[in-house]
Amino acid sequence: MDVDLRTHHPKIEGPIPYERLPKIAKMMLKYCGVEYDPELHSPSMHADDTPHWLTDEAQDVQNVHVYDLDGKITENFILMRSLGWITNMIPKTYEGAMRCEELETKLFYLMNRMTWMINKVCYDPEKEVSYDDNYAKNRYSRRLRLELPKVNAMIAVECTPPGDLLCGTTPCYADFLAYACLYDLKQFVPRCFHGINNKPVTMFFRAMETLPELKEWFEGEGVEGEYIRPPRPSVTIRIGYFA
């Protein structure tokens, strides 16, 4: 049975146990040195925590939700914005906030395009053998090669103080969100990230992975596995727009 896309978006209520948090949320808590208490630190998906470009009002104009097959990417983006406020990991300037939001919007689009390509264009859950990994990667690579230069340009914008992260030398919630998205995209089509033209993204990865506070993370939970979406079919729900 088909599911209406807009009504299927996740609605999380009440405190979230640590095990239920997105992987990137756990990564940011590790950086902050926060001993997570669901009653004190639990993020939410309330309207106040949802950026305007992820609201139904914006969807009517921009179709920003159109590729989010099961709402998981939307959930990650909203929960990270909420946790950023709770842990004071938000951009400290208006310019920084606008830069982060612009990049978030672009990465949201790219992540959902990847998920759609893997799960709807190149895979039929009703057939045992239907997924063509090479075809999916080749087709998505054509799209990513057009969009990745824009991502590099956004990351390369000079900021004060200067640094390889989105707002300088100190990460904010958007750095963790960007790292998770770019990491998952790189796992799917690593060849798109090669070359000198991708230096800003390469330096961004290096800046995040060499943060002293995350040394233990990258030796443990951060060693393997996707952050938001795996580079293989994972969505079996049938959405009306694409079924």
Report, as a whole number of angstroms, the end-to-end distance: 9 Å
- What is the succession of H and E elements? HHHHHHHHH
Which structural class do you get from the secondary structure elements?
mainly alpha
Number of E-state strands: 0
Mean pLDDT metric: 85
Low-confidence stretches: 1-9, 239-243
Write down the Rg. 18 Å
Shape: globular
Describe the largest sheet.
Answer: none
Strand content: under 5%
Helix count, per DSSP? 9
Helix content: 40-55%
Q: Any chance you could write out the topology, listing elements then pairs?
A:
Layout: H1 23-32, H2 38-41, H3 56-62, H4 72-86, H5 94-121, H6 133-156, H7 173-188, H8 199-209, H9 215-219
Helix pairs in contact: 1-7, 5-6, 5-7, 6-8, 7-8
Give a verbal description of the structure.
By secondary structure, the chain is mostly helical. The chain is built from 9 helices and no strands. The termini are close together.
